[in-house]
Amino acid sequence: MPEGKKTNKKIIFTRPEMFELNKKILLKRGVTIDSIAEITFQQQSKYTDNISRSMCVESVEKILSLRDVFHHVQLACEIDRLAEEKMFQGPIQDIIYEDLGLFGIDETMGLDVSGLYGTIGQTNFGDIDVNKHGIVKRLNDAGKEDGICHTFLDDIVGAIAAAASTRVAQVTNEEIAHEETGVKRFSIFDI
After folding, report:
1. Cβ atoms 158, 152 nearer than 8 A
2. Whole-angstrom Cα Rg for the chain
3. Judging by beta carbons within 10 Å of its beta carbon (0-12, 13-18, 19+), is residue 37 exposed, middle or buried?
4. What is the CB neighbour count within 10 angstroms for residue 180?
């Protein structure tokens, strides 16, 4: 592009815009916020009493509004779409399309997203990645069908659920700490 010429392309978005764009592309790929929140609830309810589904949904929505997660979700969905359309060249086309077990870039992206909430987030992701809960299992299984590629999507969705699960634990612990100190209210969006 010549110096001084500006592009009209929008590349920077607000958090509400990123959330809406992520929600839209995930829905297009068959993933709802509730289906991710279900994994969050299943995982966290083993360790935390009295968590609500609404807190799990809220946590998933928070994660989906983060800039790094926006970039990961958009890239993951686009890579899978391009693989479905056979747009890559060379061996990488088949490696992605067939979801080769030794190909770990998809898990690396998942670890990056879940790592936004520390080591516990990554541990939670490992559990979801290995045990394939809920929508992650459905995506993984569907990705084995001809014409469908979910190599990156299943890991990103699992990572979002893992990060949200960790956030639920952090919010719950923050509430307990505030109760013990007598402070009644804090913003859960601070976490």
Report:
1. no
2. 18
3. buried
4. 8
- Here the tokens at position 52 are 């609500």
Q: Hunting for tokens 């309810």 — which residue is that?
A: 45
C-alpha 153 chain-centroid distance: 8
pLDDT for 7-21, tens place per residue? 789 999 999 999 999
Asked whether 112 and 72 are in contact (CB, 8 A), the reply is yes
> pLDDT-based confidence at 46, cuts 50/70/90?
very high
CB atoms within 10 A of CB 79: 20
Q: What is the pLDDT of residues 118-176, one digit of tens each?
A: 999 999 999 999 999 999 999 999 999 999 999 999 999 999 999 999 999 998 888 77
Tokens at residue 112, please?
């990056």
Query: pTM of the entire structure?
Result: 0.91
Which CATH number applies to 15-180?
A: 1.10.3760.10
CA angle centred on 112, ends 106 and 118, rounded to 5°: 140
Could you tell me the maximum CA-CA distance found in the chain, to the nearest angstrom?
Answer: 62
Question: 41: how many CB neighbours lie within 10 A of its CB?
Answer: 26
